[in-house]
Amino acid sequence: MPDKLMTNYAPQPVEFTHGEGSWLWDEQDNKYLDAVSGIAVCSLGHAHPAIAKAISEQAAKLVHTSNLYHIAEQEKLAEKLAVLSGLERTFFCNSGAEANEAAIKLARLYGHQKGIKKPDIIVMDQSFHGRTMATLTATGNRKVQAGFEPLVQGFVRVPYNDVDAIKAVAENNPNVVAILVEPVQGEGGVNIPAADYLDKLDQICKQHDWLLMLDEIQTGMCRTGEWFAFQHTQCKPDVMTLAKAMGNGMPIGACLASGKAADVFKPGTHGSTYGGNPLACHTAAAVIDTMEQENVLQRVRELETQIIGDFENQLANNQHVVSIRSKGLMIGIELDIPCTELVNNARDNGVLINVTAERVIRLLPPLNMTNDEAGIMTKVVSELVNEFVLRQAS
To answer: Residue 77: is it exposed, middle or buried by C-beta count within 10 angstroms (0-12/13-18/19+)?
Structure first.
């Protein structure tokens, strides 16, 4: 019964029974093109045969033993991630918030090991890092924090994409130990920084012996056209967090570390009962293998070109469109008026979308959708945006 659930969600009036590829079906057998992918989770679409097979085979053998013992699937996945990212070590958990929580603890421990009694982490306005007490404090959105005071101490907030603001903090705060930043802000409105932003942050971190910690929970796993968004730059983070698309729906998160951050954690400093269990790790390894076999990176680059070209053509005469921006298949269409009602309008027309920051249509389609599916998405969304703007003017 719905009234037995806590009311922290306000679900849309639809329930899905099954999916295939980029499509979902509801109880009345209505068909929907999923341009949200479970919020960037189901990047290989729904019910992918290789992922379903991996889950089934591993579940039939072994689901959980705990980290009291060696876990072969965990070690194999860590090796795959090390090869793809260049980062040395991985801690596995169950979600993005847990991955960021691990990164925050790692940074604090790093600071204490340097003799800093009250270490600070620089975080950004409009960011989103999770819903735990530490990660909601790190998040740059007052709505997420409201009602949960007192918040966690040890965070210094600056504007996103503002290197000078970080330099100013460096000059005045000797307790800073790390920067935590999203390479592209997803929940904040698909905000894409200057091309050299991360490189400049990397230089500052090296200069001051800070950790550069990248929250790649939404940008990671091929979403931006590289395995990880930092690979569009020259920098390499000390710490990187992953989740979402790692398991294509199977809950798993990871905190990767390299160099001076790689050996900060010792036995007993952090842990997770379920984290890195055989089922989740075997599934995530299958996701990586499938992405490689299907050449998903190339597919993302091709689809981005098609989708952005279509939107630019179909929305060219819409004066309320502020910008159309993308990094791979993280796509944002910003309007100069609130447009949250478009979520319902699109669903009624068979396409699932998201609106974030009240004015930004956020699209996170499956990375392996077809050209025809991409065409349906752009046509429906563009028509709805144009109709919506005309209604506002009338």
So the answer is: buried
- Residues labelled catalytic: 128, 215, 244
User: Under CATH, which number does the domain 51-293 receive?
Assistant: 3.40.640.10
pLDDT per residue as tens digits for the range 210-222: 999 999 999 999 9
**Tokens 């089922």 sit on residue:** 279
DSSP codes joined into one string, 283-336: HHHHHHHHHHHTTHHHHHHHHHHHHHHHHHHHTTT-TTEEEEEEETTEEEEEES
DSSP letter assigned to residue 390: H
pLDDT digits (tens, 9 = 90+) for 244-281: 999 999 999 999 999 999 999 999 999 999 999 999 99
Q: Are strands 330-335 and 321-327 parallel, antiparallel or unpaired?
A: antiparallel
Residue with tokens 């952005």: 308
CATH 3.90.1150.10 assigned to domain 2-34+296-393? The reply is yes
Per-domain residue ranges of the chain: 2-34+296-393, 51-293
pTM above 0.90, yes or no: yes
Distances (CA, A) of 351 to 22, 152, 298, 337: 10, 39, 24, 21
Distance between first and last Cα of the chain: 42
Write the CA distances from 114 to 108, 111, 200, 262, integer angstroms.
Answer: 10, 5, 23, 15
Residue 140 per-residue DSSP state: S
